[in-house]
Amino acid sequence: MSNESVIMVLSAPSGTGKTSICRPLLREFPALRFSVSFTTRPPRRGEADGRDYRFVTPEAFREKIQAGDFVEWTENYGHLYGTSRSGIEAIRDGGGDILLDVEPRGARALKEIYPQGVFVFVLPPDLAELQRRLWKRGDGDEETRRRRYRKARDEIREVFWYDYIVVNDRLEQAIERVRAIYLAEKCRRERQMGVVAPFLAD
User: Total structural domains in the chain?
Assistant: First the structure.
């Protein structure tokens, strides 16, 4: 078997349903591991340290920046978020595939380091639905929600360099589309040469 891991990066505007797409895939495919980002923001209700994020102090986060452990990091609304290089490499060394939930700026940084990665952008059905979902979440005041909406519009403009676009109009269909992308990428020729080699041996 080929030992080249699939590195699949999902990006989407806030409120588009990335988490709802990721969780069923992680349950279905034990070899697919979620790269848990580090953040300095406090946990939201229902979030668990080590599952949703690794919650750390700003001091601990900046120590990891200085150590060069983040392949990408950013600041959003006063909180820091970052993807650990050592975390990704530990999954790869174990033969696992990797699923990352990263905003477009971070995804660009990942593409430079892992050009063989698979980059998927998840869109809402339309802008009206995006706005409805953001307002329904109730995060912050009216100005905060408007700022999130403007940021979402800016992120959508990044779709042109992604490999795949999935519209989350019906969650079950969106999950199936991302599932199909993952399975197709697993079957790529370059990832299956370990399977082919015995057929070509003398």
Answer: 1
